[in-house]
Each structure stands twice: as C-alpha cells, then as structure tokens.
C-alpha cells in the first residue's frame, strides 16, 4: 500500500464506488444524501473523482452541480486508506474541476464524526457556525403514492387546519385528543397514552364534520382515504367490499380513513335484514383489525348518532365520540370575519354573528357567496367597485333559513349529553 492516483470518475467505476461507499461510513447517522442520489449524479455525469491504488478504487468524491453551487454528495474512503491525506487529495481534485466549471460555492453536509470531515477542514472548508440544519420528512414515499392513487386516496393540501374558522372548542379538543398523540407517539407512550385509532363525529348537517376530517389529515400530513359504501356495494357487495378495502388499507403506512354518513352502513342491527346485519358485523370486525396498527386514524361522521348500532359506540371501538355543533357566537364571528375579508366588505362581523344564530358554516358560506356575487355583478354593471355593507348581509341572512332550528339545536344538546365521549 504505497500511493494512490486520483482521476476523473469513469462509468465503469460505478460498482467499485458503491462498494467503497458501503465500507466507508463511520458515523451512526445516515448521510444527508442517500446513495441513490449519488448514483443518479454519477449517471448524469456530474463531476466526481476516484482514487485508485493498484487499479482498485479506494476512494471517491461525488458532487452535484446546481447552477453556480455544488453539493458534495459523498466522500467515501476504504477503511485502510484513512488518515493519510487521501480525502484531501480527492476533494482538492474535485474542487479544481468544480471551480473551473463555473461553480462559485461548494457545500457539504456530513453527519457528526463522519469520514471526510477532517479532509474538508484541511482543504479550507469552514464549518458554518450558527447554522442549523432543518429537515421535515414527508410521510409518504413514492411507492406509497401510487398505491394511494390506486385506492383513491388524496394527500390533502397543507394549511387546511388553519382555514377552519372559529370552532375553537372543537379544534382544541381535536388537537389535544387526536392530533397531539398521533403526531408525538413517543411522548404519548411515555405517559401511557395510547394514540387514538377511531373517532366518531356527530352533529347537524353542515357543521363542518367533513371539513374537520380533511383538516386533521392535513394537520398530520397523512393521506385521506374516503370510503364510499355505495361504490363498494356496487363493486363487490358491501360486506366483502369493506373487508377488501380494509385489507388494502392495512398495507399503507399512514392514513386517515374517512366514512361519511356512517349511519347508512352502521345502523342498528335489531330489526335489520340479514345483509345489513352482515355489513355491520363486517365493519365492527374491520375496526378491531384497524385498531391493531399504528399510524392510522378512522374518522366516521354522522348526522344522527341515535340510529347507530350501539356496539359501535361502546368503549374499545371508537376512542372518542365528539359533537360538532353549530358554531357559537364567537365561531360565527370568526367565520364572518374570514368571509368579509375575502369580499373586501365594510361590514360588522359582530352584528352578523348575532343575526345568524342557528346558521351552520355551510349556511354562512351560502350567504357570503350570495352577497359576493351580487356585489360582483354590481361592480361589473356600474364600473365602480361595490363593497358589501352590513345591511347587504343582513338582508340575505333574513332570506336564508338556518339549517339548525331551535328544535334541532335542542335535540343536538340532548344527544351530546347521551352520546358524547370526549
Ligand atoms: N369552521 C369552518 N370554517 C370555514 N368553513 C367551514 C367551516 N366548517 C365548515 N365550513 C364550510 O361549510 C361547508 C359545510 O361543511 P362540511 O361539509 O364540513 O359539513 P358537514 O358537517 O360535513 O356536513 P354534512 O353533515 O352535511 O356532511 C363546507 O363548504 C365547508 O368548507
Ligand atoms: Mg359531511
């Protein structure tokens, strides 16, 4: 083992470079750029150099050029050749090529204590004090993406949670009971908290149950897969369709499964026909299986919690049964504010909130949309920008029947007392 020779990487070297790379790591942390990135850079002929001794590759440095910057993706050295200046030789040779090719800055990120740090120091690379390396990992791998697509799942856009206006009480509850333990499973485990697996949302139409399901998935960064019982029924028959779908779901790493209007398939079994009983039984079994795996949450929603088969609401199936009621005054104010801002309106949100008691978010959205459309048409017709006033909104509120009547609100309060588990 005398000396080595440094030369440009050639395509035939690929296998040897991979071999040296596998022997090279000295740190526990895995490198920032995976080997696949280095291989891709080599194949795309980004600058790279190798060192050979007796025609055997004993070291390699691989880079990727992006405009006038380059990243050193890999510094690899066979163990027997460390601490002899090989790394410095390789880096020097590479940097000549990079700077000659128009690169102005070369970056490298190494795990603590990794092979190559000394060489970088020796070549005049300075560690940047005061820099912290941030990273956020997407939950979904590319393979999972194609599987998700084939199951009809979607990755909701970020920020949906922030867009849920008002509903402070519900948001706080969902945040604490569901999101936190799922997002921090280790910390939850230290306290003996088992992350929730299934939650039932109930409340009058249009109060935001579906909105919450999507917002929770967005918050967790998990894909959302909505099950449509009617489709499963048409394809396979409902009971076996559910069984199949939950089998497929078991293969996903992270997923929020959403079943809307679950009362349609989870109605009470007493007095039901044999097929309907079979479906309820299948769903109960599926939930038990579903609960056995980490990284998933089943969210079911219903307008009528009283018609569900009691077995669903028993402990051990759904961790929580959460009421999602019509928005209170504060939540309505927040909802109005978000719509007023969007419409460039000069209207009083507090007045509108008081005038819209019993309105659901869907009702408020309807009024806001109606007023905005009228103003848009007015601006178009007159050529001057029309701005909606409090009265414009109040008039439309007057023409709109609230979804949640006093009787419904009372019934919801009664159901909350009987069924809620929070
Ligand atoms: N907190 C909220 N902030 C802003 N918009 C909301 C909020 N809650 C609901 N909406 C809007 O109101 C409409 C109805 O909400 P959603 O469909 O989530 O209600 P739902 O409870 O699922 O109704 P249903 O029982 O009829 O299925 C949607 O357009 C949604 O975007
Ligand atoms: Mg809904």
TrEMBL record:
<protein>
    <submittedName>
        <fullName>GNAT superfamily N-acetyltransferase</fullName>
    </submittedName>
</protein>
<dbReference type="InterPro" id="IPR000182">
    <property type="entry name" value="GNAT_dom"/>
</dbReference>
<dbReference type="InterPro" id="IPR003593">
    <property type="entry name" value="AAA+_ATPase"/>
</dbReference>
<keyword id="KW-0067">ATP-binding</keyword>
<dbReference type="InterPro" id="IPR027417">
    <property type="entry name" value="P-loop_NTPase"/>
</dbReference>
<dbReference type="Pfam" id="PF00004">
    <property type="entry name" value="AAA"/>
</dbReference>
<keyword id="KW-0547">Nucleotide-binding</keyword>
<comment type="similarity">
    <text>Belongs to the AAA ATPase family.</text>
</comment>
<dbReference type="Pfam" id="PF00583">
    <property type="entry name" value="Acetyltransf_1"/>
</dbReference>
<dbReference type="InterPro" id="IPR050221">
    <property type="entry name" value="26S_Proteasome_ATPase"/>
</dbReference>
<dbReference type="InterPro" id="IPR016181">
    <property type="entry name" value="Acyl_CoA_acyltransferase"/>
</dbReference>
<dbReference type="InterPro" id="IPR003959">
    <property type="entry name" value="ATPase_AAA_core"/>
</dbReference>
<dbReference type="InterPro" id="IPR003960">
    <property type="entry name" value="ATPase_AAA_CS"/>
</dbReference>
<feature type="domain" description="N-acetyltransferase">
    <location>
        <begin position="4"/>
        <end position="152"/>
    </location>
</feature>
């Amino acid at each position: 083992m005398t000396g080595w020779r440094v030369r440009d990487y050639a395509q035939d070297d690929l296998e040897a470079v991979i071999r040296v790379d596998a022997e090279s790591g000295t740190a526990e942390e895995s490198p920032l750029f995976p080997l696949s990135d280095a291989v891709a850079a080599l194949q795309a002929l980004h600058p790279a150099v190798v060192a050979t001794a007796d025609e055997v590759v004993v070291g390699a440095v691989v880079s990727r050029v992006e405009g006038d910057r380059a990243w050193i993706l890999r510094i690899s050295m066979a163990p027997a050749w460390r601490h002899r200046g090989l790394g410095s030789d390789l880096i020097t040779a590479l940097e000549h090529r990079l700077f000659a090719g128009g690169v102005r800055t070369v970056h490298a990120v190494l795990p603590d204590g990794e092979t190559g740090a000394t060489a970088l120091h020796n070549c005049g690379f300075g560690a940047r004090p005061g820099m912290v390396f941030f990273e956020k990992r997407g939950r979904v791998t590319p393979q999972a993406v194609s599987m998700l697509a084939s199951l009809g799942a979607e990755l909701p856009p970020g920020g949906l949670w922030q867009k849920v206006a008002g509903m402070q009480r519900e948001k706080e509850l969902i945040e604490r009971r569901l999101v936190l333990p799922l997002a921090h499973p280790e910390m939850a485990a230290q306290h003996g908290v088992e992350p929730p697996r299934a939650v039932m949302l109930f409340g009058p139409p249009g109060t935001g149950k579906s909105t919450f399901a999507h917002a929770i998935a967005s918050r967790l960064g998990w894909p959302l897969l909505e099950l449509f019982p009617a489709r499963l029924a048409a394809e396979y028959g409902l009971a076996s369709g559910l069984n199949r779908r939950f089998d497929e779901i078991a293969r996903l790493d992270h997923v929020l499964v959403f079943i809307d209007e679950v009362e349609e398939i989870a109605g009470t079994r007493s007095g039901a026909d044999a097929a309907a009983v079979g479906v309820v039984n299948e769903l109960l079994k599926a939930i038990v299986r579903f609960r056995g795996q980490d990284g998933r949450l089943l969210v079911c929603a219903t307008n009528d919690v009283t018609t569900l088969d009691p077995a669903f609401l028993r402990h051990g199936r759904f961790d929580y049964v959460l009421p999602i009621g019509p928005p209170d005054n504060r939540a309505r104010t927040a909802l109005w504010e978000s719509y007023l801002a969007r419409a460039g309106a000069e209207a009083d949100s507090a007045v509108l909130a008081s005038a819209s008691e019993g309105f659901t978010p869907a009702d408020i959205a309807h009024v806001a949309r109606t007023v905005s459309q009228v103003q848009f048409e007015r601006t178009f017709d007159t050529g001057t920008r029309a701005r909606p006033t409090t009265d414009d909104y109040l008039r439309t509120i007057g023409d709109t029947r609230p979804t949640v009547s006093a009787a419904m609100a009372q019934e919801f309060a009664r159901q909350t007392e009987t069924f809620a588990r929070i």
